[in-house]
Amino acid sequence: MNNPFLDRAAPQIAGLTPYVPGKPVTELERELGITDSVKLASNENPLGCGDAARAAYLAEAEELGRYPDGGGFALRAAIAAHHGLAAEQVTLGNGSNDVLDQIARVFLYPGGESIFSEHAFAVYQIATTAVGATPRVAPARDYGHDLEAMAALVSERTGVVWIANPNNPTGTWIAAEPLRDFLSALPEHCIAVVDEAYFEYVEESEYPDTSTWLEHFPNLIVTRTFAKIHGLAALRVGYGLSHPAVAELLNRVRHPFNVNAPAQAAAVAALADREHVRRSLAHNRAELARVRDGLRALGLALIPASVGNFVTVDLGRLAGPINQALLGEGVICRPVANYGLPHHLRISIGLASENDRLLAALAAVLKRTA
Ligand SMILES: *Cc1c(COP(=O)(O)O)cnc(C)c1O
């Protein structure tokens, strides 16, 4: 786009394009004139949130005239207790994306660099570029993070290394031992961010809980979110866990009142509702297996050894036209060409009926376009 205001913007803004979210259901339904579309495009929990979180949210409706607790006392205390950490180690975000942005604004600036992997979550590039720092992208290995290639990019200019574990959109994950070795070798002037947005979905025994590593790595920041398994994507709540001194810096740039009051209340309730997490995990485990089988039965290859509440499937040809045809069937998935994966489509695990719709629509589309 030829934007007449671009030359007045900070120079790095020219290098940015807006994050592309999943297409909203309302938009597709308006376009197609239908009312039964299914959205499998944003890795949301198809069960939504638990009853306790919803009740806590609704109770806040009586107090909408009041500012929230800007320090997030109750939520930070609940998160700290959940992890066995101190409240001073918790930084709240308007979604964990907000925490990623806080990290970039504190530790990156023009002349500094951040390191991430090819195919990694798009926000690392956006947050880095937005503050005028330079992204250094390590080539992926088998779609996943190549920690050796990432380590080779470390220099005195490195401010932040972003690690998505597991990664979105590839679902690839890093085991405890190589990740610990990588962090041990990282110079202390580099902040290491381990983004664990899908933590609760991962059942592999070698998958690490890096929130337990903070005492060994003062330069480590772990991020988590309430948007995925807790089913509170609409409310925008996430958090960072770190050394208290790192949290203190993040809090210097955190917008006041960045997490609204109903969101804080719902998140406290969600964290305590282990039954909803268990139910959501069991649903995902069963339906993920079924969707994977269904996709393989269509002759499609999946990214190997992936985890999470989504699958990324290799269509063996450009995914754009297939995605368009699926939209015509009322099924919204996520093309990932902007992640360097033009032949792949990312599909979130939905309700059983939604997954059936996806598999039937994809079978029909593939047949039609064969
Ligand atoms: C979904 C996701 C997040 C969470 O973002 P929120 O801002 O908390 O909604 C963070 N990182 C990755 C890799 C994700 O896929």
TrEMBL record:
<comment type="subunit">
    <text>Homodimer.</text>
</comment>
<feature type="modified residue" description="N6-(pyridoxal phosphate)lysine">
    <location>
        <position position="228"/>
    </location>
</feature>
<keyword id="KW-0808">Transferase</keyword>
<dbReference type="InterPro" id="IPR015421">
    <property type="entry name" value="PyrdxlP-dep_Trfase_major"/>
</dbReference>
<dbReference type="InterPro" id="IPR015422">
    <property type="entry name" value="PyrdxlP-dep_Trfase_small"/>
</dbReference>
<comment type="pathway">
    <text>Amino-acid biosynthesis; L-histidine biosynthesis; L-histidine from 5-phospho-alpha-D-ribose 1-diphosphate: step 7/9.</text>
</comment>
<keyword id="KW-0032">Aminotransferase</keyword>
<keyword id="KW-0663">Pyridoxal phosphate</keyword>
<dbReference type="GO" id="GO:0000105">
    <property type="term" value="P:L-histidine biosynthetic process"/>
</dbReference>
<dbReference type="InterPro" id="IPR005861">
    <property type="entry name" value="HisP_aminotrans"/>
</dbReference>
<keyword id="KW-0028">Amino-acid biosynthesis</keyword>
<protein>
    <recommendedName>
        <fullName>Histidinol-phosphate aminotransferase</fullName>
        <ecNumber>2.6.1.9</ecNumber>
    </recommendedName>
</protein>
<comment type="similarity">
    <text>Belongs to the class-II pyridoxal-phosphate-dependent aminotransferase family. Histidinol-phosphate aminotransferase subfamily.</text>
</comment>
<dbReference type="InterPro" id="IPR050106">
    <property type="entry name" value="HistidinolP_aminotransfase"/>
</dbReference>
<dbReference type="InterPro" id="IPR004839">
    <property type="entry name" value="Aminotransferase_I/II_large"/>
</dbReference>
<dbReference type="InterPro" id="IPR015424">
    <property type="entry name" value="PyrdxlP-dep_Trfase"/>
</dbReference>
<dbReference type="Pfam" id="PF00155">
    <property type="entry name" value="Aminotran_1_2"/>
</dbReference>
<keyword id="KW-0368">Histidine biosynthesis</keyword>
<dbReference type="GO" id="GO:0004400">
    <property type="term" value="F:histidinol-phosphate transaminase activity"/>
</dbReference>
<feature type="domain" description="Aminotransferase class I/classII large">
    <location>
        <begin position="36"/>
        <end position="362"/>
    </location>
</feature>
<dbReference type="GO" id="GO:0030170">
    <property type="term" value="F:pyridoxal phosphate binding"/>
</dbReference>
